[in-house]
Write a structure and sequence with these properties.
By secondary structure, this protein is an all-alpha fold. The chain has a single domain, classed as Farnesyl Diphosphate Synthase (Orthogonal Bundle). The chain is built from 13 helices and no strands. The N and C termini lie far apart (43 Å).
């Protein structure tokens, strides 16, 4: 029975989420059970795409990402794939009517990582939209469960949250992106000579994204609000740690938040949520 294979597929997406991101996995657990699997499937798809362009240096990455894209569309058309990650994702796309434009924008940004090393302001904004904003919109499709009016009203905030998360990742991974992948996402920033003034400008931009994102989080359906708020608090705390860290230190090491502190953040988020402060 295909039901058994579908169950195995979503378990694979869940394993991918837990293996690659303990913080995101923790946030997904705070979502209502009815929508967790869909979010796992979205994460599995975007994670594998990202892995292709970031990690598989010994292989033809362009061929791999193109094959991955073709396999996805075959899965969408036939409603099955022997790649469990694609099998679970195509189910979510069908069930929640995720627009193909979002998926195409994401894959376009992933392919840019194969050849782009620096970005202008316009290219940076386009990359952020494709790599992060659309992921927020995919998740929003799941959160609103077909309510188009709700989706439209929360769309801007979902994109801002995606932007904030991605920009925090860029700042945290500045060293690895530059030294290992030869990439510099922030326009007009000299990574090798990052100073506190440049860092301050980046931080202020991200803080504005977080501010606008919180407006939408407060209006999310109950099934999704606590889980999304948990992720918001984690990334906001990571941003605060980056803000306290001198620029010269950021370009030398990857800033992290300990698992113990993540649990404390979860408790803080739960207290705030239960007190109905969001």
């Amino acid at each position: 029975m295909k039901k058994a294979f579908d169950e195995v597929s979503i378990k694979c997406s869940k394993i991918v989420t837990k293996h690659y991101s303990t913080s995101f996995s923790l946030a997904v657990k705070m979502l209502d059970k009815s929508i967790r699997n869909a979010i796992y499937s979205i994460y599995g798809f975007v994670r594998f795409s990202d892995e292709i362009v970031d990690s598989f240096h010994e292989y033809d990455k362009e061929a791999l990402i193109n094959d991955f894209e073709k396999d996805y569309y075959r899965a969408l058309e036939s409603r099955i794939s022997l790649n469990p990650i694609l099998n679970s994702f195509q189910h979510t796309v069908k069930e929640y009517e995720i627009d193909n434009d979002l998926i195409q924008a994401f894959l376009t940004s992933m392919k840019l990582d194969l050849k782009k090393s620096e970005y202008t302001d316009t290219e940076y904004n386009e990359y952020i939209y494709g790599s992060a904003d659309v992921v927020g919109l995919m998740c929003l499709k799941v959160f609103v469960k077909g309510n188009q009016e709700k989706y439209d009203s929360l769309k801007e905030s979902a994109m801002k949250l995606g932007s904030a998360f991605q920009k925090v990742n860029f700042l945290r991974d500045l060293k690895d992106d530059y030294e290992e992948l030869n990439r510099s996402y922030f326009p007009n920033i000299d990574v090798k000579n990052l100073n506190n003034e440049s860092k301050k400008m980046i931080i202020q931009e991200i803080e504005e994204d977080f501010k606008n994102a919180l407006i939408g989080i407060k209006k999310l359906p109950k099934d999704a609000k606590f889980g999304v708020y948990t992720a918001y608090i984690y990334y906001l705390s990571l941003l605060k740690k980056l803000k306290r860290t001198p620029a010269e230190e950021i370009i030398k090491t990857r800033i992290r938040i300990s698992n113990t502190f993540k649990i404390l953040l979860l408790i803080k988020s739960f207290v705030t949520y239960k007190a109905k402060l969001i």
